[in-house]
Design goal:
It is a single chain. The protein has 626 residues and is mainly beta. 15% of the residues lie in helices and 40% in strands. The strands form 10 sheets. Strands 2, 3, 4, 6, 7, 11, 12, 14 and 15 form a 9-stranded mixed β-sheet that branches. β3 (39-52) and β4 form a beta hairpin. The longest helix has 15 residues, at 278-292. The chain is globular, with a radius of gyration of 29 Å.
Length: 626
């Protein structure tokens, strides 16, 4: 559960409360608000007032009781500040279970440092740790932030995760006719209008118990999204009235930044002199960009939205997602190939874009190249990513395509369960003592390739460490391990040699052997007849394992399992067992589907996984003739 609190604040001034607060005693929390809860939000009052396009004020006052160690992340505050926002007030107090003050924030408690890791930016952060080792305790926080822009608009989500309950929370939004703010209420009543201010209130929200295979929590908790209709950011005027308008602002903000020098121009001409079709030209320019540059995050001034000039990227050899995308786009433009940046909300399983609420919902940029016969997608921040492959960081979601005519939502490619293939070919030899060796060749394709792309250039020793952490076999030793991969192929093959100790279990004259060597389903969640939330499976894939066992002479089969097959809305499972002279072949094929299903189907999913576990742990029984 993500409970790291990111407060959009700037400079920190610290004061404290002198008195105790018995009104926040833990004994006053209702029992039903403690059930399934790690955190109880006692009070959360958020106010956002837009004065004009150059001034907005955000104030928050909250009291949270941390019941146990699982809720301690909410007591860890990370506070960014920059040229667009300044803190006018910050008070923090820590109370014990009775509401007695036990600590206050002091200047010496605050750590201040540049927020960048692999980045160049002017954002700094102040880190405040309010956590205690004795539970429960309560934190009391008040702050006020002043913005010199109306671009940054808050989200109201007092119940921000599972296992969080709320006693009382409110949100007050006010603005004038010149700088209106739009809003979208989800899972709560529409606001009252109190003298020109919109007010939302929620109370007695019980904690949501974590349920396996659930959608993002923001799909079912009370949330209010806000966004300006029009804005000014660093003297650049833009609009969120439509996706078209926002795309137009981004397009115009980045105009005139596509010029590059003769060195790149000459290199591109030489690269393309033997290329006759457009897709080969795009591929060559993409490779040139990958080899020449590296990714560095840049957040200077309006740099979160405006690209570095292409010439600057060429000179320094690095850039962020915007800069590297613009650099690639610029070289394509120079040879007459049209392409467009696409703004994306990135990350595996990232929440969907609210299509009916144009606003800043993006954190990454990729490049779209619409060719006559196909559309090419380029991830410009990775030197390893194959041509025309996005991976699970940006696949299967709506993105905002930025064109000269403005923005429009389109969808990135979906990689199907057939494309996301792991194919494993194994040979295993056992002796009469149950000791063995195995040669395993595993080919990864599609998103399963994406899972191993970072391993391709690792050393053998690092690959061994990764192998030991991932392979679920008792008593084995990795003797050799390596990867084979050719550039631009959306596949890689891992070669593995292992020694197996006591994998086959002896009992008298019998030997018990699990044919499924290293791709077993070993657990499944509990049944739930009171499921509250719809079921979501986020990853579609196919696994095929073909394992040939070589057995010592003098053994025959006492028990060979029958072939197994079952299927349902979540996938299809097949396993076959075929005896051969001095051995047998085991083949397992699993297809798992991606989708959203009604909550009533949850126990069917559990049953499917339970059947998988049973089938994957099926044993072959051998008997010695001597």
């Amino acid at each position: 559960m993500k409970r790291l609190m990111i407060l959009t604040l700037v400079v920190l001034s610290v004061c404290s409360y002198a008195q105790d607060h018995p009104e926040w005693s833990v004994v006053d929390i209702k029992d039903d608000l403690k059930t399934h809860a790690d955190i109880v939000v006692r009070k959360y009052d958020l106010t956002y007032k837009v004065v004009n396009s150059h001034k907005a004020i955000k104030s928050a006052s909250f009291v949270k009781t941390i019941l146990n160690s699982h809720g301690s992340d909410d007591a860890f505050l990370v506070i960014p500040y920059d040229d667009f926002r300044k803190i006018k007030k910050f008070d923090a107090l820590i109370l014990d279970a009775k509401g007695t003050k036990i600590d206050k924030v002091k200047n010496s408690d605050i750590i201040d440092y540049n927020s960048g890791g692999n980045s160049i930016d002017d954002t700094r952060v102040k880190v405040v740790d309010l956590s205690k080792s004795t539970y429960p305790y309560t934190i009391v926080v008040d702050y006020e932030v002043e913005f010199n822009t109306n671009f940054y608009s808050p989200t109201f989500a007092p119940q921000h995760a599972e296992r969080v309950s709320v006693e009382n929370a409110s949100f007050t939004l006010s603005f004038n006719e010149e700088t209106p703010v739009k809003f979208k209420s989800m899972n709560l009543a529409e606001p009252s209008n109190d003298g020109g201010s919109f007010v939302w209130n929620v109370s007695n929200l019980k904690a949501i118990e974590e349920e396996d295979y659930s959608p993002d929590v923001f799909n079912y908790i009370p949330v209010v999204l806000t966004s300006p209709n029009s804005f000014v950011l660093d003297n650049s005027k833009g609009s969120f009235n439509s996706w078209k308008d926002f795309g137009k602002w981004y397009y115009e903000l980045n105009q005139g930044r596509d010029q590059f020098g003769e060195e790149d121009r000459t290199a591109v001409i030489n690269l393309l002199k033997d290329k006759t079709n457009e897709i080969d030209k795009v591929r060559a320019i993409y490779h040139y960009m990958q080899e020449k540059t590296r990714y560095v995050s840049v957040q200077l001034g309006i740099g979160g939205y405006q690209s570095m000039p292409a010439q600057k990227v060429s000179d320094v050899g690095w850039g962020d997602c915007k800069a590297l995308t613009n650099y690639t786009q610029s070289m394509l433009k120079a040879v007459g190939i049209v392409s467009y940046p696409a703004l994306v909300n990135s990350g595996f399983g990232a929440n969907r874009i609210m299509e009916d609420f144009p606003s800043n919902q993006f954190d990454h940029v990729i490049l779209c190249v619409p060719l006559q016969q196909d559309t090419v997608w380029l991830e410009c921040t990775s030197r390893e990513m194959p041509f025309n492959f996005l991976g699970d960081f940006t696949d299967d979601r709506k993105v905002l395509l930025v064109t000269p005519g403005g923005g429009k939502l389109i969808k990135t490619p979906l990689y199907s369960y057939k494309e996301n293939l792991q194919s494993q070919s194994v040979e295993v030899w056992f002796d009469k003592a149950g000791q063995g060796k195995a040669i395993v060749n595993t080919t990864y394709r599609g998103l399963q390739f994406d899972d191993v792309i970072r391993d391709l250039d690792e050393s053998d020793e690092k690959l061994k460490k990764i192998g030991y952490s991932e392979i679920d076999i008792p008593n084995f030793t990795i003797d050799k391990i390596s990867f084979e991969h050719q550039k631009d192929q959306i596949k890689a093959t891992r070669h593995l040699e292992m020694s197996l100790r006591d994998y086959a279990t002896k009992s008298g004259q019998r030997v018990f052997l699990k044919p499924n060597l290293m791709n077993r389903q070993n657990s499944y969640p509990k049944l739930n007849n009171d499921r509250k939330i719809e079921v979501v499976t986020r990853y579609a894939y196919t696994d095929i394992d073909t394992i040939k066992y070589h057995l010592p002479e003098g053994y025959y089969f006492e028990y060979m399992p029958k072939d197994i097959h079952f299927e349902g809305p979540f996938g299809t499972y097949d396993a076959s067992f075929k005896a051969e002279e001095n051995g047998f072949i085991y083949i397992r094929k699993l297809e798992k589907y991606k989708g959203t299903y009604p909550k009533e189907s949850y126990n069917d999913l559990v049953d499917f996984l339970k059947k998988m576990k049973k089938a994957d742990n099926t044993k072959v029984v051998l008997t010695s003739s001597t």
